[in-house]
Write a structure and sequence with these properties.
alpha/beta; five-stranded parallel sheet
Amino acid sequence: MTKPLALVVDDEPDICELLAITLERMDIDTDTCGDVATAKQRLGSRDYQLCLTDMRLPDSDGLELVEWMQTSGLRTPVAVITAHGNVESAVRALKLGAFDFISKPVDLTDLRNLVANAMRLDMAGGGKARLLGDSKAISDVRNVIAKVARSQAPVHISGESGTGKELVARMIHEQGARSTGPFVPVNCGAIPSELMESEFFGHRKGSFTGAVSDKQGLFQSAEGGTLFLDEIADLPLTMQVKLLRVIQEKEMRPIGQTDEIQVDVRILSATHKDLGELVAQGEFREDLFYRVNVIELNVPPLRDRGDDVFILSKYTLERLATEMQMAEPSLDAQARDILGAYEFPGNVRELENVLERAVTLCDGSTITAGDIQVKAGGSTATAAEPDAALGDKLENIERDEITQALEQNRYNKTATAKRLGLSLRALRYRIKELGIE
């Protein structure tokens, strides 16, 4: 079996020798050269699985080589070697399409992690997560996902609530070099501020009151994989400082531990808020913003995706039918017209909720206009209320109705289903979903 081949571009012979020895120990053959012109010639004539280039070279710089490789259509992962602390150059390289970066003096453990990730790129699969739809807006998102999946650059996913930002993050993970590693999603707004440092970095037994055993943090749980920071805008400023340091230094220290531990994690983040505006207001650190927002990917709202609403509806109804063990219901013409005209302020998540209620309410296997609890034109019956609050109120009403009917029928589910005009399967499903004992 032919060994992988790497190209090292550096005008310092000692650096070339160090990198070549390290790569040889990883069973990777190595070519070396000392300038951009020779590197272009080599890359154009041989098939390399990895390119490592210094930033400062006699005839140009590493950024020019990275950009040339992208415009030439070369799929070889390229990583740049930067001066220690030169974060700005590293970010520029990532924006131009570099796979990753490593700082001088080169840490051999970091180098091995980088090389291992690059070698895994050719084996990365498509993954299970799918972004459904035929619209240009969503096709563009899929194309960007395919590109950024080949990088280790931090990606910030923006978009309204309910558009599928976590799904996009999962697709980036599954299509990239870290697909065999863990994908760890965390809602930053759901962690109490006093527990945040322990949750992210872990702690040692006895490090504070209540620390009765060692605890592994989220960064350690995501080691070798991806940490997805959902609602990153909700991080308090003190935690933003600590997060910035981990991203820049690739090191962290659990609470109560004296020495640093290395971190090999890709950071993806998301929020429905405007991070740039929060920076201007002093509520989000500008330096952290530029580190997590190396590449921005916007997920379009459902109202801008045209007929994707019907593709998503078909998929959702298939899923609900499987979960409820029933025949897949269909939408009549009027129901389709309503869904097509509605603007869905809650996006895909709201569409799923609307269809779930419709399946529960429909009589038989056809969903009619009366089963769709929205108004054509884009507003709900109580449009002045926030979408989440409206959803909670509707669920509470439904829960009360089912509970009352169960009590009146002495918890006979067959009789209760008949009284409510539901199938027995639909009633069982709603009891489970609403948490009714």
